[in-house]
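step 3/5: co-fold with zinc ion
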Amino acid sequence: MNPARSFQSIRQIRLTNTLSGKKELLETLQPGKLSFYSCGPTVYGLIHIGNLRGGLVADMFFRYFQRVGYEVIYVRNYTDIDDKIIQRARDENIQSEEIAKKYTQEVEKDYAWVGMLEPTHKTKATEHIPEIILMIEQMIHRGNAYVVEGGEVLYAIDQFPLYGKLSHKKLDDLISGIRVEVNSKKRNPLDFILWKPAKPEEPYWESPWGPGRPGWHIECSAMARKWLGDCIDVHHGGEDLIFPHHENEIAQSEGALGKAPFVKVWLHHAFLTLSEKKMSKSLGNGLTARDFLSRFSGEVARYLLLSIHYRSIINFSSDLIAQAVSNLQRIYEAKARAQDLLCSLGKSRSDLRAEGIWGEFAASCEKARSVMDEHFANDFNTPAVLGELFTLIREFNRTLAEPLAQATPSAILGASELIGVIEEDLGGILGVGRLEAKHALEDLARMKVSLSGGETSETEVKNLLTEEEILAAIEARAVARKLKDYAAADAIRKDLERKGVLIQDGPVGTSWVYQ
Ligand SMILES: [Zn+2]
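step 4/5: write tokens
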């Protein structure tokens, strides 16, 4: 980046800040720099399509903040110690760190599949235990936390009068919304755990309060502080994290340091529902990102999950998938046509520009580019961005659809400008439209056939096997084969095929693929 670049020239962005409940102009703590923290997944299984939405929304924010000129430090965490991870480790009879390691790798595969940019820092709770302990000690010292019998450390809500400021709720309303524990050692029912003593055979770290592990909320406060400082510009997460997770992060960070605000702008994306039910891993009936990506593609996932405004609920359905596929087809059809036009002249966009060739459609592209940017800067209004793009594509189809032989230089320049809008102005932020058009169209046509053939009706999407189920079936088949029960092994293979999974035995084991 040019060091002389003036930060005054950075585009103004308006964002809906959960803290104020209003759309505000983004003003960072240090001009030209932006610190950004996004709460990542707890790694105890494959992520669901709703988690993928969270990752992609953060990726879109990151791309746009950088594009407008901010020097961004982006931190995304993995919660790698947690009750669910410990339970999963028990179920699988392995160490909890192995579970966390395995599923961190799986999450990264999904993230790479959809082409997410790497954050500046990917942090793990277990690699920040000293920072966590220090922060808890500071809270105890300031009277914001207390130690109870058995080595448990709790946050004292009553010492933080602003508790509830993010969720805009009064303490009484918050209390009525939680399960009050019987025989609790808590002074206030809303007090939450900062340090949890280890039960026998649970993983633990030594601490001033005995062996134990951190509570969930403290890790984000400690990691944000270590990598971004005491006060940060933008913090993002799903709206289900507003209370208690983010409310607790504020209480911890502001309580431990006596500095406010911990975060200037809080951004929250809305839920993704599947058949009207909130999808969450704990319900166990969600659709994994892996299922979706195996069946469709990273680009369809990006389009579907980002074309809807990040603050609107997504009612996930096969209709929505079909719509995403059709819209991507429209984009790639226009791109393919534009590429044909460009090839017919054999000149590049910069050649044409250098020759001073301009035309009406090229001017429309220029205008669309600035309107799309306005929409991104207006709280990431992606439906309006896409609306503008499709208006432009309609104009292209209407005005520049003459036979190639009659193409004028200005039409060809228009075509090259359209490719620029698709690849840079849309692709650079939403991450779609950048593939080779003809290949992309072939893939999309295949998906369309699969969708219209009824093979992917909504019920079937829901019934797609998870990777774990597939691996378990492959394992069961291997056992049957070892026992020479070939009939049973064959029945498992046929059952998988019926559910759309093809398996293949190779020299290093059995691989699988969705049909
Ligand atoms: Zn968090």
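step 5/5: annotate
Residues 276-284, 454-462 have pLDDT under 50 and may be disordered.
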